[in-house]
Amino acid sequence: MSTVLIVEPRSSGLELVVRARELGHTVLVLAAGAAHGGGGHIHTEAGREARARAHRVISADTADRAAALARIRALHADTPLDAILPGFEHYVQLAADAAAALGLPGIDPDGVAPLRHKHRMRRALDAAGLDQPGHRAVSCERSAAAAYAELGPVCVVKPVDQSGSLDVRKVRSAREAREAFRGARRSGRAGGTRGTGLVLVEEYVEGPEYSVEGYVEDGRVHVLGITEKLLGAEPHFVEVGHIVPAQLTASPARRIESYITRVLAAVGLRIGPFHAEVRMSGRGPLLMEVAARLPGDRIPDLLRLARGHDLYEIMLRCYLGVPNPEPAAPRGSTRAGIRYFLRPGLDSYREFRVDPELRSDPRVREIGVLLPPGSALPDPGSSAGRLGYVLASGASYRETAGLLQRAEASVTFS
Ligand SMILES: Nc1ncnc2c1ncn2[C@@H]1O[C@H](COP(=O)(O)OP(=O)(O)OP(=O)(O)O)[C@@H](O)[C@H]1O
Ligand SMILES: [Mg+2]
């Protein structure tokens, strides 16, 4: 089979490593090693997991574009690569640069900015005349307060370059906008790449939220599913769960699909998977963000369970330049969902208990903890504060949502 290089896999990127191996590929991982300490971009836990799963791990300073590219070229001279894939949001640019340098399929390196930076994404949508939340990119507290005055009374302040809802805050006053600006600016700087110093202030959009999963091949958009998103308590926006596919009638689903197809053309994505988040507002679907990578939070696994679409394999084929067969039309009402357990206020726990009946229910595919007993529990304001999860699949939306709810109500952290 083929030799693929996955750059800094995390989250679904780690599942991609496993799936690529299952599909018979030789899987190499490029990751910052312990030798490159101090950059703030090194997630040793993820690094360890990638090491355990790949055929081979190549160490490189992945925050240094020139050094990482030189490493990849040297590797390619020795072990010819058939594809280079981003393993995580922050490495979409590096993967695109490397693929272009080696003449492999990939995202146009000059077109990555609107896919990676939220202010550039907003600019691309404005240029295409697409409706979206009002927004301003600001670089100081004073302009954050001015943007709030213009877009308020309710706004969202967020880093242009982060993920996991880190430092994304709903604000209701100029003072809160200034405060949130300081938080967003801090986490923008701590990102895997050099920060832009910019923060987005946006009009707050009310409405249910969905993500749209799919891929682009030869410039053609394929929507594989619309995911319903469950969110935690505001002013934060922690993702508490997802159900695939969402409970939507044909007409709003079609509206979302056609909006996202135009969004993808506006941001110029022509190859590989995408994950787009929208809120259904009174004026129609409005984009939260779009990313040129696999969705996180096990959504690819949910999509596979509920719909039979294998987004990992699809991504590999896109980046290998092997055309995907036309996706089969969805059949049946099977749903799959994940629900995360949040316990704000808890700062540690000793024991996690699950109702044995639930654990032995065949519809409950997985149930467990993400933060082991005894660990210090992080701030519940981002996805890092999620204690555990249940992943389940049922014959209908109601059955699946009910299972997730039952699990959430019955597990205890003491
Ligand atoms: N303008 C807005 N109006 C309403 N809610 C918003 C707005 N912008 C962001 N949010 C909420 O905050 C969440 C996180 O925002 P966003 O997706 O931009 O940040 P992120 O860090 O990339 O998040 P993640 O990686 O968790 O998807 C959104 O999914 C949405 O629920
Ligand atoms: Mg998001």
Detailed description of the structure:
The chain is an alpha+beta fold and 414 residues long. The chain has four domains: 3-104, Rossmann fold; 134-203, ATP-grasp fold, A domain (Dna Ligase, domain 1); 206-331, ATP-grasp fold, B domain (D-amino Acid Aminotransferase, Chain A, domain 1, 2-Layer Sandwich), CATH 3.30.470; 333-414, 2-Layer Sandwich (D-amino Acid Aminotransferase, Chain A, domain 1), CATH 3.30.470.20. The protein is 34% helix and 25% strand. The strands form four sheets. It has an eight-stranded antiparallel sheet with strand order 13-12-9-10-11-14-17-16, sandwiched between helices. A hairpin with a 2-residue loop joins strand 12 (272-281) and strand 13 (284-291). Helix 3 (65-78) crosses helix 4. The relative contact order is 0.11. The protein binds adenosine-5'-triphosphate (ATP) and magnesium ion. The site of magnesium ion (MG) has 3 residues, from strand 13. Magnesium ion (MG) binds at residues 277, 288-289.
Name the CATH architecture of the largest domain: 2-Layer Sandwich
First and last CA, distance: 49 Å
Q: What is the strand content?
A: 25-35%
For this structure, what is the CATH homologous superfamily of the largest domain?
A: ATP-grasp fold, B domain
Number of helices: 13
**SS-derived structural category:** alpha+beta
Overall form: globular
CATH C-level category of the largest domain: Alpha Beta
What is CATH's topology name of the largest domain? D-amino Acid Aminotransferase, Chain A, domain 1
User: How many domains is the backbone divided into?
Assistant: 4
Stretches with pLDDT under 50, minimum 5 residues: 34-43
Mean pLDDT: 93
> What bound compounds does this protein have?
adenosine-5'-triphosphate, magnesium ion
Radius of gyration: 21 Å
Count all strands and give the number: 18
